[in-house]
Structure formats: structure tokens, C-alpha cells
Amino acid sequence: MPRPSKGPRLFLRKARPDKRQASVWVIRDGSKEVGTGCGPGEVAEAGLKLAEYIQAKWTPAPSGPNGAADPADVLLADVLALYAEGRAAKAPDPKAVRARLSALLEFWGESTVADIRRSTCEAYVAHRILQPIKMAKDPATARRVTDQGARRELEDLSAAIGYWHDEHPLTRRPKVVLPAKAESTRDALDRSQAARLLLAAMGWRLNPKTGKWKRLQKSSRLNRAHLRRFALIGFYTGTRPGVIPKLLWEESLTQAWVDLDEGIIYRRGKAERDHRTKRRPLVVIPNRLLAHLRRWREMDRAASIALREDHLKAGGDPLQIPQLVSVLHHGGRPLAGRIRTGFEGMVRDAGLPEEITPHWMRHTCATWLMERDAKPWEAASFTGMTTKTLEDCYGHHRPSNRARARKALG
């Protein structure tokens, strides 16, 4: 496997004991080292030298017709760095993109664009499926990265090469060979399964042997308060699971928020732009969910008052009084990331298959809409997906389709 590269960076080379050489900032780039002529106290000047070095490195000398560069002269580390700086930062989920780019960089290291071939792409997949997933606590027992996960990373590699090629043309653009795309195992929950999941979110556990439900202790029930909100919002609106934890009670320019007066969930902040592949249109809140949201809002207001009183009694700063501004919160704090561990425990306690993930709620909402024969463009707008995606993935659930077929057959 190629040696990983950390990319160009500053390093303070200390003075030699014999004092024949003073401390100086240098630029380290792989095995190469470039002096800056800047001493320890000239950090800003050294930073400018590093910026100039990187800029010069990302502007390769033309080696082909029409000023194009030879792929053998372009490091993949530079290609991925440019993509991370330019395109990845504007992606719907920048953190996930950075994680995939990190996995790519670990394998390709100091390889060049010319090293991309069918054999090296296959070697990458073979390498990745032996690696534990990144968030695993114990790598020895953790599940491994799937070939579909490796496929998604290679898709980013292909996109990064295209992004580089648009800025710095290549004499040829190598093809990134992807593993076959597997059929999705994701499905929708039926009404009884959804009810079991909600019951688990409320603090109950199903005994698979007796089929009876057991009430969990109070602390466990409190730990799942945010999961109840998460599940209900997911089932009733089909909102992507990555958006639900970002919901705020007040209008926001940068985050999704809830307008209880108008009965609308804005899936993106007023200043956020929509993404072509991850649409986030507003959604009118169904009446049953609206009642839950209003009740939760009153609960959070009461909790905020209690937090304020405790804060002031403890001698806290009156200008920094804590408030519950997030619809989903745990221990009074907004959720730091995606809901994974808690949801897995909820699925387990409900006695449901372990492959069920938060995204199943979105599939469930879309399926239920089609089973109720909702108009495709209305259902697509409601869930935030294209009409084509809705028809392709859920059209077979529409009862009117079968009715028309039976009528045509007499």
C-alpha cells in the first residue's frame, strides 16, 4: 500500500547543539524539505511562504498540448486537497465528505493521477473491506467497511479528479472503476413495526421469548426523549435524518427551523442554498405532529425557565443564560452529530431487524404516501425528493396502478 502523505506543512527545525544552525521554519512535503528563511518569531511570514509553495504546487507546469499537464506529474494528495478546500466544504454533509477523502488519502498516499487503473481501484476496494468502520469503539470486533462504502469513496475520487481537471487541465483523465452497485436492502416499516419502534422510544423493551413488553427505568426513558421526537418527525414528514437534529424552535439563517404559528418546518435556513441532489423544501406539518411539537415547545420553555433559575442561583453570568433552542436535545444540549447508537438500541429493544437505520423512516413516509394514493408531485414535494425518484422507488405501492391494470384486463 502506498505510504500516506500529510501534505505540505510548516515544521520548526530547532537549532543544532553546536549552534552552527539557528532555529528556522521549513516546509515539509513528504520526503522533501524546503527552507523559508524565517525564524521562530516569524510565524506569519512562514505561513505566507507555505501559501506560496502550495499555490505553486497546485499550478503544475504544462507538459502537454494546450497547456495540459501529464497525470504522472500530479499527486492525488494535491487533487484531494483541492477538492476538500473547494467543493467538499459546500457539500450537504461536509463532515462525511472529509471522512471519505481521508480514507482515500490513507491508501493512495503519494500516488499520482496516472496510478489510477482498474487494478488499483480493485485493490482499493479489497483494502477497504478489511478496515473497521471509523466510529467503532473496538476495531477488533467492529463491522467492516462494505464494498458499497468503498464505491462511494471512489465516486468522490472521480469527482475530485474532475474538479482538478476543470481548474488544471490534464492531457488525459483516467477512469475510476467502481464496484457494481448493489440493490438497496432498505425497505419501509409497516404500521405495527412503526408502533413497536415508537414504543421502544418511549422506554419499553420487548422480550423476544415471551413477547411481553417491559418498562425501562426512569433514567433510560429520559435518555430516549430525543429519540421519540426524532422518530415522530421522521415518520410524519419523511425529512432526512441528517436534517432533523438541526431543527431549531426559532427562525434561523443557517439551520432548519420550525414555525409553529404557520405550521411549517423549514428544512434549511433562510440563507442556506438548496442542493440539487439533497433537496430540502419546506413541509406543512401534519396536524398530529403539530400537536406534539406544540407540547414539546411548552415543555422546553418550562425547562428553560428552570435552567435560568438554577443558573442564576449558582451565580452564573446573566448574559449567558442557557436556553433550549433545539427541537432535539439530550441533557439540555443540542445533539453533536447524527443519531446512531441510540437508534440502534431502540431498534434492538423493539425486536426489529438490525439493518433498520434512521433512513428507513424516510422510506416509510414515502411508502405510506403512495399507499394512500397521494399525487406524485405532492408526495415528492412533501418528502423533498424528485418525482422521478418517488415513482422509481415507491410507485409500485400505489393502489390506483393496480386498479387501472385490473380494469384494463376486464
UniProtKB/TrEMBL annotation:
Protein name, as recorded: Tyrosine-type recombinase/integrase
PROSITE patterns: TYR_RECOMBINASE
Tyr recombinase domain ranges (all copies): 184-407
Domain of life: Bacteria
Keywords: DNA recombination
InterPro entries: DNA_brk_join_enz (IPR011010), Integrase-like_cat_sf (IPR013762), Integrase_catalytic (IPR002104)
